[in-house]
Amino acid sequence: MARGRRRKLLWSKLYTFACGTSKFEADHSHIGGPGFSRVAFANEPDCFDAVNQNYGSNYVSTTKYTVATFFPKSLFEQFRRVANIYFLFTGCLSFTSLAPYSAISAILPLIVVIGATMVKEAIEDWRRYQQDIEVNNRKVKVHHGGGKFEYKEWKNLRVGDIVKVEKDKFFPADLVMLSSSFDDGICYVETMNLDGETNLKMKQALDVSSDLQSDSSFQNFRAIIKCEDPNASLYTFVGTMEYGDQQYPLSPQQLLLRDSKLRNTDYIYGVVVFTGHDTKVMQNAMNPPSKRSKIERKMDKLIYLLMGALVLISLIGSVIFGIATSEDIQDGKMKRWYLRPDDTKNTFDPKNADVAAILHFLTAMILYSYFIPISLYVSIEIVKVLQTIFINQDIQMYHEESDKPAHARTSNLNEELGQVDTVLSDKTGTLTCNSMEFIKCSIAGTPYGHGVTEVERAMARRKGSPLLEDEQPDENHEHPKPTIKGFNFDDERIMNGNWVNEPRSDIIRMFFRLLAICHTAIPEVDEDTGKISYEAESPDEAAFVIAAREIGFEFYQRTQTNISIRELDPVSGERVQKTYKLLNVLEFNSSRKRMSVIVQDEEGKLLLLSKGADSVMFERLAREGRNFEAKTKEQMHEYADAGLRTLVLAYRELDEEEYKKFNINFMDAKNSIDADREEKIEEAADSIERNLVLLGATAVEDKLQNGVPECIDKLAQAGIKIWVLTGDKMETAINIGFASSLLRQGMKQIIITLEEPEIIRLEKEGNKEAIAKASKDSVMSQINKGKGLLSSSNDGSFALIIDGKSLAYALKDDVKNLFLQLAVGCASVICCRSSPKQKALVTRLVKAGTGKVTLAIGDGANDVGMLQEADIGVGISGAEGMQAVMASDVAISQFRFLERLLLVHGHWCYRRISSMICYFFYKNLTFGVTIFLYEAYTSFSGQPAYNDWFMSFYNVFFTSLPVIAMGVFDQDVSPRLCLKFPMLYQEGVQNALFNWPRIIGWMFNGVCNGVMVFFFCTTALQHQAFRKGGEVVDFEILGATMYSCVVWVVNCQLALSISYFTIIQHIVIWGSIVVWYLFLLAYGAITPTISTSAFMVFIEGMAPSLSYWITTLFVVIATLIPYIVYSTLQMQFFPMYHNMIQWMRFDGHANDPEYCQVVRQRSVRPTTVGVSARIDAKVNQLARKVHHAVHSP
Amino acid sequence: MNHANGSAVAGSSSGSGDDLAPRRNSKRPKYSRFTQQELPACKPILTPKWVISVFTLIGVIFVPIGVAALLASNNVVEIVDQYDDKCVPPNMTNDKVAYIQNATFDKTCIRTLQVLKNMSQPIYVYYQLDNFYQNHRRYVKSRNDEQLRKASQANETSGCDPERTANGAPIVPCGLIAWSLFNDTYKFSLDNKNLTVNKKGISWKSDRDHKFGKDVYPKNFQNSSVIGGAKLDPKIPLSEQEDLIVWMRTAALPTFRKLYGKIEQDLKEGDSIIVTLENNYNTYSFSGKKKLVLSTSSWLGGKNDFLGIAYLAIGGLCFFLAVAFTVIYLVKPRKLGDPSYLSWNRNPAGN
């Protein structure tokens, strides 16, 4: 590596992002002032001043709680739920004499439930704590004095420590880089954990310190770093370093952030400036917006409804109780003398019956608390966590290539996955792989490349030949060749060095040279094989460099000033090395839409190499450089039509004078500290990127991900609407639409665009108001026209395609509803050229406008807004980084997994949670009603029918596990059938399992069961003897019998209503009943002081009595018969879709294709998009033709 | 076949997993039937066959039980005599409460019971009270179990309000329940011979052994200004005061019977039994009825036709349902997957 130190100074000139300018920028004047007060004494963390600063340690804690705050904080969280407050209220009341049962038994379930939630919190927090410990105890080499470095735990780092970080290690804190193993003090950093970008970033130390390259050089190193206070901005940093009586400015270029990784560099030295929670990554940590599912919101309403019911029946009870109490003393005579109404305190005082009634109301509120399922919340939480585990563990949602399983990041929304009405999808990286393949190019007006794109295949299908439909699109397997990622180019005219024989070989050479030079990629040489791979900022760029390599222009080395390539010399036929001196890089950005480099070749010729979008490039061509313009344009149009991304390549030679002038301008602009610095840079760049000579164009295929068309088809069959929101050009978007079957021939396309001559004319004039008005009018009229079209035809399906500019107007408050109406009427909607903000706005519009569940899926940082706005955000954990995943609720690695996530897991979770909630209310109502009815028989005195502990454990031991098992394991239909009959998904979208009739139905069932249990029990075990020995039924026996019946009934009811019996179900359902008896035995065996009325009740009283068993059998069967009859009739005459499928499976017809087709055809609403729709349309067309042929004479 | 499918997939995938074994830190979820939700399961659905056979089965089981229960109930001979009104002298019927509360009146009352059917011993003697809320919360709670159990806890009267103390000393047994102890007494004679009523063993053994102490004697009982019900012999420990034990096992419902004793002697049809009873207990205040019940017992207990009838009814209903479903099944076999049943297919135009 022959890199002289003299040339180092040039570095800052080369990259605009390398702004290690020698000048102090404006911000540096703030140093030492407010907001910029941090001082780090490098290498002297122990000196007096440093200790005085008292900066926090590098210990990082990501836990929500500490030992001290855990209880108050998590308790506070718990009591934000109304139900829990209610239970706390009743719990407190139960310590007074008002309590119908012992305080401990009233408060214990609450403690258990809250305890369980808190334990869950604690475990989660403990896990975080363990991670923290792991991180905090990682070791790093720290200068220990005397030029010796020793390992030290991360947590013990202090501001001012000098650390040495080695290759592929994480930085332990935010460091100011002093030097690296490279002479010029650069290093490469991977910031995956911060911004998710996988490309390497270059950082550079200050010149003054970059020669401190050995441990020993730090023996007497002293420097003072002053910089800004901790903040969350990852891309800014302002500071100075005082070193050797001089001040040097520090920029983000010297800052190495915690949690990023050192790559391709053997080691670096750095000074710790921010530790622990002061680091930028920690400052950035924040919680995503919390979302709640529709079902849970509805459940809250249900709880309120039940609370209302509870108040109502308490009120009824209180009134009756008040009347009964007031009548206890009439005319000075006691009626129920055995209650001693003459000698009471408030609670039962006939003289103050109203007070007694009010107090009784409180008692009743406690007593009837069983109407509110206390354990519902915690059960749902447990269930959801377990469901999440199943989603995460699903092997069929694991992507081998990227080694990523599905990851449900929030468990709140599981059931919402089963109710998605509209999917809003990003295109690049979501529908497509975002792995670009160089597939075609046009050089000097000649098209090269034989590859057939997915879109072309789709278009071939579109143009007719139904035979293609059946053909497997995977033709690649036919001619197996070693596939190179990013390269799918095949043309013998160019490959294998044949290009030298082409007519315009000079242009071809320039073309590929440009591809090899004009980029910001970094080569990585595999030491074993000598193979070179590239780290590039974007996959397009990588594809270009790879293409150049494959053609024979191998870019193999980048130094700070040089780019070296190996290329074929057309004359000698040998590979020669060429080194280009890299003078300037004019970076790519979205407004420039182009990138250029200025290089000097070995002969000293100055070249400007440029590549960019057609819209900006063609206008920059020199008059004499337009030789192939027409042909190139035509070919580019074809490429775009085939769904390819195109770039125009052009170059020009510069003369020294011109370059010097430019360089001065450019450096000035870069070094300026004004607000318009960017503008100045752009202006300077713009001035030189002119008079270019056209070379040709590249076409890169953005490949559709595996299985995307099939997945879209399934989703469409499931009745899910799919909108594509993309930043791409309209043509590209439409093509992808065709490729993915969102669009098809025969579908009427409503295109809303502002690319109209009139608008364009106005735009040229530049009158902004006029543009806005005309645009808006135009959009309005187009929307209205579309709506007219929509309402006039009733059979055709429509596709709406709208571009970003029009979207801006369509999303205005007064237009958006109109737009939404149109969009909802269309089968597919494609928004192209849309900005991230527009994506989020469209999502909000759909969410709020339709009131249905929306799911947004995307992979990039530009999708974050959309993901957070949607009801569910699904992130694709692909190559483009982690931002989307971080903002998402569920992360999957491939779009096609959405099918399984929604149709299988979503459907199941929805079904499970909704059945579970219904059942919960059912079982609590059944129990509550028996208590209430018994109340009526005690003249509403507030006496519970059951032993205190029976009641407490009802929700905890005897009925909770089966319902949790149902929530976790129940499957109405196997995954295979879920996918075979996607229409099943509509049960969730239509909310067929959690609508009011169904909820009320379950509640009604609960009330009926309660009533039946009570009256059957009390009538069967009246006042007569209930066993041979003449013993009569007393309070204890009746309570325990009734309780047994309730436990039996609710568990058997559950067994009847689940459709999937594994060993687990058997264990928990029958186990719960067994546990009840075991409990009766155990509880009855302990001393009567504790067991009170349950003492020996089972072993002595009930078990030997045949009437107990006969009564139980009778009550259970009789109570369940109505439900059996109901569900049989329902199955017979009003089956729901899952019933039909169940039935089909049961009859063994599930594998009979004809049979399935019949069911599917007859029960599926005609779908409007997707492969199946396409086939259907074709079949219809054919049928019509045949029809015509037959009927026309 | 579903499982077979699943395991085949599993087999192949785990195979490929082995190939990748050297790849460390793979995040591939481990395959298990549990995590893939493929546990073997039975998936019952309510098919007509299943439903019909279940209903038939229930019918087959229920009808015989019903018949047996009804027979058992019918075999029980029960003599019920309501005496509350009858035992008030005719001149006092307008103010029964005054009569019952006046200790000076003679409360003796003679009743004659006709035995209509042979009754084999043991014949259980019950008293039945009506409209008496022994399950009233104030009443139920008014006792102290500790005090009843242990002599040392005699002063423990918490919860016994308002019958905790009398004349400054704690009452044993305290509380409303004990205080309102039933105090009617019955003497039976047949053909001028006394029928002995065995009052031993009428309470639950567990109560005698564990809830009422053998060394706990009534103290200061019924000494307060207002006297409730029966008095207790202070020389007999609570564990032997079976009337009290029976009484203190509170009834579940406002109409209840309590065991008074057993007549261990067969009675023949046509026998008429003379009952000499002391009508002491005040049910007139709250217009409750008092009944004297003599009953034999069967394997099912006392006389109650409900279970028998209910079993027969449900059994019959199940037979009926089985037949009905069979008819439906035969006459109108289900249409498989008829989409018109699906609510969201009713208006196919709606999106």
TrEMBL record, chain A:
<feature type="domain" description="P-type ATPase N-terminal">
    <location>
        <begin position="52"/>
        <end position="106"/>
    </location>
</feature>
<keyword id="KW-0547">Nucleotide-binding</keyword>
<feature type="binding site">
    <location>
        <position position="839"/>
    </location>
    <ligand>
        <name>ATP</name>
    </ligand>
</feature>
<dbReference type="InterPro" id="IPR032631">
    <property type="entry name" value="P-type_ATPase_N"/>
</dbReference>
<feature type="binding site">
    <location>
        <position position="863"/>
    </location>
    <ligand>
        <name>ATP</name>
    </ligand>
</feature>
<feature type="binding site">
    <location>
        <position position="588"/>
    </location>
    <ligand>
        <name>ATP</name>
    </ligand>
</feature>
<dbReference type="InterPro" id="IPR006539">
    <property type="entry name" value="P-type_ATPase_IV"/>
</dbReference>
<dbReference type="InterPro" id="IPR023299">
    <property type="entry name" value="ATPase_P-typ_cyto_dom_N"/>
</dbReference>
<keyword id="KW-1133">Transmembrane helix</keyword>
<feature type="binding site">
    <location>
        <position position="426"/>
    </location>
    <ligand>
        <name>Mg(2+)</name>
    </ligand>
</feature>
<dbReference type="InterPro" id="IPR023214">
    <property type="entry name" value="HAD_sf"/>
</dbReference>
<feature type="transmembrane region" description="Helical">
    <location>
        <begin position="1106"/>
        <end position="1126"/>
    </location>
</feature>
<feature type="binding site">
    <location>
        <position position="727"/>
    </location>
    <ligand>
        <name>ATP</name>
    </ligand>
</feature>
<feature type="active site" description="4-aspartylphosphate intermediate">
    <location>
        <position position="426"/>
    </location>
</feature>
<comment type="function">
    <text>Involved in transport of phospholipids.</text>
</comment>
<dbReference type="GO" id="GO:1901703">
    <property type="term" value="P:protein localization involved in auxin polar transport"/>
</dbReference>
<dbReference type="GO" id="GO:0000287">
    <property type="term" value="F:magnesium ion binding"/>
</dbReference>
<dbReference type="GO" id="GO:0016887">
    <property type="term" value="F:ATP hydrolysis activity"/>
</dbReference>
<dbReference type="GO" id="GO:0045332">
    <property type="term" value="P:phospholipid translocation"/>
</dbReference>
<feature type="region of interest" description="Disordered">
    <location>
        <begin position="460"/>
        <end position="487"/>
    </location>
</feature>
<feature type="binding site">
    <location>
        <position position="726"/>
    </location>
    <ligand>
        <name>ATP</name>
    </ligand>
</feature>
<keyword id="KW-0812">Transmembrane</keyword>
Automatic annotation (TrEMBL), chain B:
<feature type="compositionally biased region" description="Low complexity">
    <location>
        <begin position="1"/>
        <end position="17"/>
    </location>
</feature>
<feature type="transmembrane region" description="Helical">
    <location>
        <begin position="50"/>
        <end position="72"/>
    </location>
</feature>
<feature type="region of interest" description="Disordered">
    <location>
        <begin position="144"/>
        <end position="164"/>
    </location>
</feature>
<dbReference type="GO" id="GO:0005794">
    <property type="term" value="C:Golgi apparatus"/>
</dbReference>
<dbReference type="InterPro" id="IPR005045">
    <property type="entry name" value="CDC50/LEM3_fam"/>
</dbReference>
<keyword id="KW-0812">Transmembrane</keyword>
<dbReference type="Pfam" id="PF03381">
    <property type="entry name" value="CDC50"/>
</dbReference>
<comment type="similarity">
    <text>Belongs to the CDC50/LEM3 family.</text>
</comment>
<keyword id="KW-1133">Transmembrane helix</keyword>
<dbReference type="GO" id="GO:0005886">
    <property type="term" value="C:plasma membrane"/>
</dbReference>
<dbReference type="GO" id="GO:0005783">
    <property type="term" value="C:endoplasmic reticulum"/>
</dbReference>
<feature type="transmembrane region" description="Helical">
    <location>
        <begin position="306"/>
        <end position="331"/>
    </location>
</feature>
<keyword id="KW-0472">Membrane</keyword>
<protein>
    <recommendedName>
        <fullName>ALA-interacting subunit</fullName>
    </recommendedName>
</protein>
<feature type="region of interest" description="Disordered">
    <location>
        <begin position="1"/>
        <end position="33"/>
    </location>
</feature>
